[in-house]
């Protein structure tokens, strides 16, 4: 079953040989892009979808999200907006609610958020554990996450749970031992909240232990790094060859040099700075140094509860001096790089047919019209 998608006023491919096309069409066959070109030259297909003069972009790749949780932290958000500082401590309330929730409750929330993302143009999402913090609860979170995405991340080292507050070493041993053993079969990635600036998170030595154990268990690495302070996270991520260092809000020159000289993507999460009234990361400094930059939501119930990549893209343009083209690339191809995926984030021949339609003649409207729900995943109705 092949589908011709036509009536595309502007097609952003992120394929260097194709670029951005006007009056374009695209053929999808068996879930992959089979042909791209001018609408006037389009071949026949089994079915035809006319998007009516709208823009088509690669579906967003949200490479950083925490979607397996229960509970509600609107009151904490309100307190923060009244001047209480964010330090990661509120995660404990989500942990308590998540442990108490049934599988079905967690699954319903998770699937609801994934559907909410898809309705806003996100076609690939990474999902982390990190609100269970026991062997069984972390493994459960990853089993559920694996039902909705192959991009599953073990984040047992999200925070030190309250029952281990006086025994941090024992918790790190648990994460690196039985918890990792139970979780690795359901995870592609291992992650750690490396943040010496938070009493709840992990310092450089603890983070190194977690990441090294994760790699030994066959997982690839990503790191929550340099969110609250210029700590060791970014350089550790680069040293260990992590796919991504996420947040990168507080960077030294040595951090930027390390990222520029390595293969680790810098994933910026400006929804967090927006939602915690914090200074934004310096995207221009990274881009000018030649660092690969991704944008993601960090959708989570505490520090940033948005599922909208378009909103994060608009923040990147308005608050971080990225151009609309740079921001779109980072929200799609950049996310793919952060997940080491070569089949998403672009719309060249052979790519997954993950298309998003913008209800406007150009992708520029995503930043030009912030907050307006313009973009959705295109449902091809194959088969
Ligand atoms: Zn996060």
Blueprint of the fold:
Blueprint: E1 2-12, E2 20-29, E3 32-38, E4 47-58, E5 60-62, H1 74-81, H2 91-100, H3 103-118, E6 122-125, E7 127-128, H4 135-145, E8 152-157, H5 168-183, E9 189-194, H6 204-216, E10 220-225, H7 233-239, E11 244-247, H8 253-261, E12 265-268, H9 270-276, H10 283-288, E13 293-295, H11 309-320, H12 324-338, E14 355-358, H13 365-368, E15 375-377
Parallel strand pairs: 1-4, 5-6, 7-8, 8-9, 9-10, 10-11, 11-12, 12-13
Antiparallel strand pairs: 1-2, 2-3, 4-14, 14-15
Helix pairs in contact: 3-4, 4-5, 5-6, 7-8, 11-12
The structure holds zinc ion.
List key phrases describing it:
TIM Barrel, binds zinc ion, 15 strands, 2 domains, alpha/beta, 13 helices, 383 residues, globular
Q: Report the CATH superfamily of the largest domain.
A: Metal-dependent hydrolases
Task: Quote the average pLDDT.
Answer: 96
Count of discrete alpha- or pi-helical segments spanning 4 or more residues: 13
Major pleated sheet: 7 strands, parallel
Report the C-alpha radius of gyration, rounded. Answer: 20 Å
Overall helicity: 25-40%
Strand-pairing-aware structural class: alpha/beta
Succession of helices and strands: EEEEEHHHEEHEHEHEHEHEHHEHHEHE
Q: At the third CATH level, what is the topology name of the largest domain?
A: TIM Barrel
Beta-strand segment tally: 15
Poorly predicted runs of 5 or more residues: none
The CATH architecture of the largest domain can be given as Alpha-Beta Barrel
Instruction: Tell me, briefly, the overall form.
Output: globular
Strand fraction equals 15-25%
């Amino acid at each position: 079953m092949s589908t011709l998608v036509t009536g595309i006023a502007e097609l952003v491919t992120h394929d260097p040989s194709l670029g951005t096309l006007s009056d374009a069409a695209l053929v999808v066959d068996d879930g992959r892009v089979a042909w791209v070109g001018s609408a006037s030259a389009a071949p026949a297909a089994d079915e035809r979808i006319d998007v009516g003069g709208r823009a088509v972009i690669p579906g967003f790749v949200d490479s950083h999200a925490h979607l397996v949780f229960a509970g509600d932290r609107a009151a904490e958000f309100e307190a923060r907006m009244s001047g209480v500082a964010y330090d990661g401590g509120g995660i404990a309330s989500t942990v308590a609610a998540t442990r108490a929730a049934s599988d079905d409750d967690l699954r319903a929330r998770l699937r609801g958020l994934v559907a909410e993302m898809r309705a806003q143009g996100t076609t690939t999402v990474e999902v982390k554990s990190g609100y269970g913090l026991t062997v069984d609860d972390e493994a459960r979170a990853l089993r559920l996450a694996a039902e909705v995405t192959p991009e599953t991340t073990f984040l047992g080292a999200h925070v030190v749970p309250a029952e281990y507050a006086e025994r941090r070493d024992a918790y790190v041993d648990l994460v690196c031992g039985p918890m990792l053993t139970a979780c690795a079969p359901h995870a592609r990635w291992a992650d750690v909240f490396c943040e010496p600036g938070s009493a709840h998170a992990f310092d450089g030595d603890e983070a190194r232990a977690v990441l090294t154990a994760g790699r030994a268990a066959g997982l690839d690495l990503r790191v929550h790094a340099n969110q609250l302070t210029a700590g060791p996270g970014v350089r550790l991520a680069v040293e260990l060859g992590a796919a991504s260092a996420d947040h990168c809000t507080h960077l030294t020159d040595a951090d930027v040099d390390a990222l520029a000289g390595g293969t680790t993507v810098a994933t910026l999460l400006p929804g967090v700075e927006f939602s915690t009234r914090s200074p934004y990361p310096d995207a221009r400094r990274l881009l000018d140094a030649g660092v690969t930059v991704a944008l993601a939501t960090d959708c989570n119930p505490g520090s940033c509860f948005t599922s909208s990549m378009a909103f994060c893209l608009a923040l990147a343009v308005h608050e971080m001096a990225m151009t609309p083209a740079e921001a779109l690339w980072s929200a799609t191809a950049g996310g793919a790089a952060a997940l080491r995926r070569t089949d998403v984030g672009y719309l060249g021949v052979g790519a997954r047919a993950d298309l998003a339609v913008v209800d406007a003649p150009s992708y520029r409207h995503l930043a030009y019209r912030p907050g307006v729900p313009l973009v959705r995943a295109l449902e091809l109705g194959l088969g």
